[in-house]
Amino acid sequence: MRAALVDPHSLPREVRPYLEDLVQRTRTVCGPHLVSVFAVGSIALGDYRHGRSDVDVTVVVDPALPGAVLHELAEALAHPALPCPASGLELVVYDSDFAERPSAEAGYLLDLNTGALLPSRASFDPARSSAFWYVIDRSIAHQSGRLLSGSPVRQVLAAPTERDLFAAILASVREHTKGKGHLSDNQVLNGCRSVAFCRTGHWLTKREAARAIAKTDKDFQPLIESALHSFERPRSTAIALPTATVENFLAWVRERVEEAAETIAR
What we know:
266 residues
């Protein structure tokens, strides 16, 4: 019997049974130490695309959870022990003491990447990871996290400070500029989302942000439209965008983020 989700009908039907199984396994492994489970990323923002999007999940546990249980949880949720129907699962576990305060650190107990299209990774050492990804994810979760089980998101998770968040956004733009391991359409769309956040203080979906930037910054409209067209395709058939054009766009994005970060720092 599957665990009941808080609001199953608000979740994409393609991953609803999977999330029910994930919650059930997490409850079984963590027992009374489990505090909360919620979806973040594209599911939280209402822009999940089957065949393209990952399933992003955050788990909050009591600090008294034995360390060995984290390894059990990683094994229980790993693909194909729990087959992931999406491109992959990106799951992060925090203890509640860490989660309830703003932080610029990665701070996780477990960072699990698994799935048919994701390189398998189970990290238990946050010092080995770039912190900015987690800061941004916690910001999105605090804004739009979709509760799956347990305590409400904002009761257990603090938003990062503005200073820490803008530093993280700038670091993410620098990372995407390197290009390594990133689809070019995702580089462009993440850049759009970063600029849109700097302008609005609100996280939009990648497609919403892209349309907004294409409307206001016409010079990049052809590139953004190409990125949106590619984003409609599965990852395996994504369209390669012109490298020089993408780099030029990301340099512009970096300037916009740096301007916003300087304003916050004053």
